[in-house]
Amino acid sequence: MEQELTSAQMRVFTSILSSLHSARKKQVIVIEGLRGIGKSFLLARLEGEISGKASIVDCQNVYYRWERMRQSPIHIITTHTIGQHYSDETLYERIGKRYQEWDFRVFPLAGMSFQEAMSYAEILRGKTRGSLSLENTVAYSLGIPFLLSHLVREGMTEDIAAEVLARYLHESFRSGCALPAFKSEVRAYTKIEIPEYALMKIRRIGEEFQTCKIYSELFYLFRRQEESDTGSGDDESPLFVAPESEAIYDEMLRDGSTAFIDILAPHIAQADFMRILQTFGCYGKEDFSLIQSSAQVQRFGAEIRKVVFWYRNEGGGVWACESEYAATRPVQWLLAFTEKIADQYPFLRTEGKACFYFHKHEHRGMTYASAIFGWMVESFLQQRGIPYMCRNITYGAIYAYNPQQRRIEIITRESSLVGQLR
Question: CATH for 7-108, among 3.30.450, 2.60.40, 3.10.450, 3.40.50?
Answer without folding.
Answer: 3.40.50
